[in-house]
Amino acid sequence: DLLLATAMADETGNQEEGIRPQRLDDYIGQKELKSVLHIAIQAAKGRNESLDHLLLYGPPGLGKTTMSLILATEMGVNCKITAAPALERPRDIMGILCSLKEGDILFIDEIHRMTRMTEELLYPAMEDYRLDITIGKGQTAKTRSIPLPKFTLVGATTRVGSLTSPLRDRFGLIQRLRFYETDELTLIVKRTADVLKVCVTEEGAEEIARRSRGTPRIANRLLKRVRDYCQVNKVESIDRKFAEEALEVFNVDPMGLDWTDRLVLKVMIEQFNGGPVGLEAVASATGEDAQTIEEVYEPYLLQIGYVHRTPRGRVATVAARKHLNYE
Ligand code: ADP
Questions:
Q1: Over 90: is that where the pLDDT of 138 sits?
Q2: In angstroms, rounded to a whole number, what is the distance separating the alpha carbons of residues 72 and 325?
Q3: Where Mg(2+) is bound, by residue (predicted)?
Q4: pTM here?
Q5: More confident residue, 216 or 5
Q6: What is the ipTM of this complex?
Q7: What's the pLDDT tens digit per position in 280-308?
Q8: Cβ–ligand 1 contact at 267 (below 6 Å)
Q9: 156 phi, psi to nearest 5 deg
Q10: Which residues carry a binding-site annotation for ATP?
Q11: Residues 163 and 113 sit within 8 Å (Cβ to Cβ)
Q12: Beta pairing partners, 108
């Protein structure tokens, strides 16, 4: 089972790599982010220096990891990818820092989840490219400094507010990723369809894009589900009608809301009279984890105006009631 699981992970992993855009010009949308980074790349190259440390924040699936890999390609360096939960012990971060070469990019996902000890090792590493380690304990303890190559840290987080300020202050660039527009997602769907050798019409791609909650990762995932549906039904090309039909089957509604989104709204409307209601109460009534609701489901519901946040809690709006056919 383990072998099978790894093989499957490999397969999806490889496919994922094929789908990811490789160059800045292929990265669709996020105009502001791209222009800021374009300047940063040109300037760093002109000075023959490494890029400034960069913090990317925004909901999952918007292209943070992808952008980090693109930066490495554009700078002609390597990118090491890790996540804060894998860096629990100081030796984990020491190992990875010591393995870096001049100019390399170190991508740390979920950077708000670093332990304090690991985080404190990062401060001098980011600021002075130096690793401070303490050898021994108590009065005989000595601190040694190991020089590090000039690397670039790219941190990614869904909750920028949870970062400590000393960590945040050490990033030269702090950029937010936004939800994508439907026309941008349509381009992404068409591009992925090309990579996967799937035939999709303009309207078919647009229908998938419209239901992707502004998120490229979801757009790619829905495209794969629609492809399966078409293959089983022996349909050659994905048009609008088939996209609609398939996505109904997979429980994705015309606004792109899935079963959990609708459950969250339903609970707010039926059990809490539309709110205001606290996050924890919604979490326990839906059986979902509060953090998942806050980071995965809520941002899009806020974006499309189905939920408002007030000082007294969350409120389901009239638009949400209409969408779910409440009076
Ligand atoms: P994050 O790190 O923010 O969770 P990822 O970088 O892993 O998101 O992106 C998820 C998927 O969406 C990737 O496989 C990539 O193919 C696709 N993707 C993300 N952003 C873009 C974009 N701007 N253009 C095209 N595809 C994108």
A1: no
A2: 48
A3: 65
A4: 0.90
A5: 216
A6: 0.99
A7: 999 999 999 999 999 999 999 999 999 99
A8: no
A9: -125, 140
A10: 19-20, 61, 64-66, 127-129, 170, 180, 217
A11: no
A12: 82, 155
